[in-house]
Amino acid sequence: MSHIPDPMTAPPLRWGFLGTGMIARFLAEAARDGTTQILQAIGSRTQDKADAFAQKYNVPQAFGSYEELVACPDVDVVYIATPNSEHHANTKLALEAGKHVLVEKSFTLTQAQAIDLAELAKQKNLFITEAMWTRFLPHQIELRRRIANGDLGDLVAAAGDLGQRDPVDLTDRFYSNELGGGSLYDRGVYPILWIADLFGIPQTVQARAEMTFSGVDGHLSVILGYPDKGVHAVAQSSILARTPAAGWVAGTKGYCEVPGFWAPAPLHFSFADGSTETWQWEGIASRGYEYEMAAIARAITEGLLTHPLIPIEETIAIQGLFDEIRAQIGLTWTT
Question: Do residues 210 and 184 touch, judged by C-beta distance below 8 A?
Fold first, then answer.
């Protein structure tokens, strides 16, 4: 389908990965298997970790410090793949070195940090965008198209959830307050941003959470209000329990269910006349992260300073929403 861009056709950029965790490994596989992007350099806090990553993914340059990575003249764009608590400092480091940046979600811990990075990127005329890969996946592109075409009628409501049971371990980022853990910043960001993609930035928010012994939110429920549209939506997230990890959006002409909405997924339509339809994309080469990398490469090559599917202005607004949610549930950072 012509409205689904082929990741292999995006102009290749030279990427430097800052961080060697699981998400960095996923994007390395995507660059290798599903795009023409060049994974040029890897930076870690230790040379051993950088060398191991470089050997596994055939990366030409490996650095034992983040400072060396961002200073590398062979890198066009830096992907920030560190824990939430480190995003602000790491992104600032890359921007000050003159590098475009793609920053893993959640973008920062506070709205103030997000504004700081956006202003620095603007001053330096550099690209900056949050790595919300769902926005670039084929099913989400198709869902936006169907909604714009009026297939579901006027939107009325939506809901999304994402939960996994994570081991209770203070050394793990999910339970660590110091690392910006909890369900909101790792899981809740997905349904909240998915709903924002469909309805826009919410005008009101009501949140309730069950807090863990470590001071982070274990299970979170959020009602996002759009009084100007007369609708609301619900987002849930959890590190205490596995949930269906599903989303749905309903309108006056029908609804669409999206099982596993946050990753490559089918679309199941049910219409008011009783008819049904299933849409599924078969072209995923490497988990789907290749679509995000290709989109970022296109945007930077075109001279854009943020990606229109997840613009920095929206990220700032969402970080403000997260500030309000944290205030309502009593989540404070010790980092």
Answer: no
Cα-based distances in Å from 334 to 45, 112, 214, 215, 318: 22, 16, 11, 9, 21
Q: Which of 56, 92, 99, 105 is labelled catalytic? A: 105
pLDDT digits (tens, 9 = 90+) for 207-255: 999 999 889 999 999 999 999 999 999 999 999 999 999 999 999 999 9
H/E stretch holding 115: helix 111-123
Sign of CA dihedral 165, 268, 145, 77: positive
Answer whether 0.90 is exceeded by the pTM. Answer: yes
Residue 197: φ, ψ to 5°: -65, -35
Whether 84 contacts 21, CB under 8 Å: no
For the CA atoms of 9, 13, 18, 24, what is the dihedral angle to 10 degrees?
Answer: 20
Verify whether residue 122 is a known catalytic residue: no
Q: What is the pLDDT of residue 258?
A: 98
For the chain, percent helix, then strand, then coil, each to nearest 5? 35, 25, 40
